[in-house]
Structures are given as C-alpha cells and as structure tokens.
C-alpha cells in the first residue's frame, strides 16, 4: 500500500514540475501566426525585441495590416504593409512593453492611402513579451 502512495506522490510531483516548467517557458514564447489566406494577410509576434510582423499574402491591391493591442500599457496600433504580395514589414516596441506582458495581434487587409481597415481575421493571436 505504501508503495502505491509513494508512486502516486512521485507522479504528482513530476506533473507539478512539468506544469511549472511549461508555464515558465510559455511566458516568454513567441506567438503563433494569425493567417487569413482568403483575405491575404498574416501577422505574428517575436518575443526578442517585442517585434510584430505584417505580411501580405495575396496580390489583390489591398495592403496587409497587423492590429497590435497591448491594453496594460495603452498600445493600440496598426502596422501597415503596403509593399505588395509576399512582402513583410515589422515594428519593434523594444522596452516599451514590460517582460511578461500579454500582447494581442490580428491580421487584416485595408486601403493604405486612406488608412481604412476593410476586414480582419475573426480571432486575435496572443503572446507574452
């Protein structure tokens, strides 16, 4: 009976260590891509330098736009990419965003000349600075 309790305790301890390690590393992980092939835009975030990216993925005359939202520090920004299909642009926020801060980003298309956003992906990407 004691052997079963010892084994259960070891499994529980291992699970706790694994969960803690995963949570700690996830706080500094790069975010995944938010891609909308129908609209022709992609957005992603890189932790090192707090860099947001915007990529145009469709030759349709529209610009790609990455909507950046970091509510805890008051950032609501649009990263415009009018460079055409296959082109990517980035913006680094550097030390403006404190470590561990939650950041959100969305891929959109728009008209660069009037800075009008036409459509965005229904969901937002999420990462940690």
Arithmetic mean pLDDT: 82
Main β-sheet, in a few words? 5 strands, antiparallel
Tertiary shape:
elongated
Helix tally? 1
Give the % helix.
10-25%
Report how far the terminal alpha carbons are from each other. 47 Å
Rg calculated over all Cα atoms? 20 Å
Query: What would you call the structural class?
Result: alpha+beta
Q: What's the SSE pattern?
A: HEEEEEEEEE
Count every beta strand, where a strand is a DSSP E run of 2 or more residues.
Answer: 9
- Note the beta-strand portion: 35-45%
Sequence stretches where pLDDT stays below 50 over 5 or more residues: 1-28
Notes on the protein architecture:
- The structure is a single chain.
- The chain has 129 residues and is α+β, with helices and mostly antiparallel strands.
- The chain is built from one helix and nine strands, in the order αβββββββββ.
- Strands 4, 5, 7, 8 and 9 form a five-stranded antiparallel beta sheet that branches. Strands 1-2-3-6 form a four-stranded antiparallel beta sheet, with no helix packed on it.
- The chain starts with a helix and ends with a strand.
